[in-house]
Design brief:
Layout (H helix, E strand, L loop, with lengths): L42 H4 L2 E4 L4 E7 L3 E4 L2 E15 L4 E13 L2 E3 L2 E9 L4 E3 L2 E3 L1 E4 L4 E3 L2 E3 L4 H10 L2 H4 L5
Parallel strand pairs: 1-3, 2-4, 3-4, 4-5, 5-6, 5-7, 6-8, 7-9, 7-10, 8-11, 9-12
Length: 174
Amino acid sequence: MWKPNQPGTGNPATPEPVRGVAAPTIEPTPTRPASPTPAGIPAAATGEQATIGKSLVIKGEVSGSESLFIDGKIEGAINLPGNRVTVGRNGQVAANIMAREVVVLGKVRGNVHASDRIDIRSEGSLTGDVIAARISIEDGAFFKGGIDIRKPGANEAKGAAAAAPVAEQVPVTV
């Protein structure tokens, strides 16, 4: 007796097509184009940038992983490590800023910590202390505060030593 599914029988059984049933049609679904930011590349390198317009006012903490252009008002804190913060000509910031790069064309009141550089343009005004590896202040710019130039990677070691309480640094005998 012939059994089509047995090994060594020569002709494998071919499935018989199903008749009388229409195959379902699948409509293509619209897809979003792939994100222009490849994984692992910071948004600043690809040109992605969020914008806070002239009429917007933000009170609180701003944080994220893309560059930011500020033309409105922000009060609080801006934490965008690894990205650029640009304060536009109409921008008014009353906040401490932490970013890779900070460009000031408007008004900033607060301390600024940039892991790479700070650029205060001729129309810009910065009142507060600055920590950065590089700083540029154009003619006509206003700056009032202290400047701490640190080499990249040096700020973590200094910050940890300064943050340690004195009681832990002094040996105690019992």
